[in-house]
User: Fold this.
Amino acid sequence: MGEEQLTLVPIGVAHTSHETLADAPHQGFADGADATIEVLDAHVGALAGIEGMFRATVVYWAQLADRNSGSDGDDDSD
Assistant:
C-alpha cells in the first residue's frame, strides 16, 4: 500500500475548563469535564435537526497533544 495523506479541515473548536496542557487528562473522557463545541458558521447548516438527538459522537483532533508520550513503551519513569 502506498503512502496516503490525510488533510484535516477544522469545522469547529472544542472549549474545556483545562487552562494548560498539564491540566488536561491523557484521555479526554477520563475526568468527566464538560466541554462546549463551537461550530464554525460555514458548517452550522450541516447540524440541522441535531437538537432532537439524545447523543452525538464527536471526533476531534487534539492538535496540541504530545504525540510522542508513551508511544515507544518507554515512559522514562526509571
Remarks:
- The CA atoms of residues 9 and 61 lie 10 Å apart.
- Residues 17-64 form one domain.
- The chain has a mean pLDDT of 79.
- The radius of gyration is 17 Å.
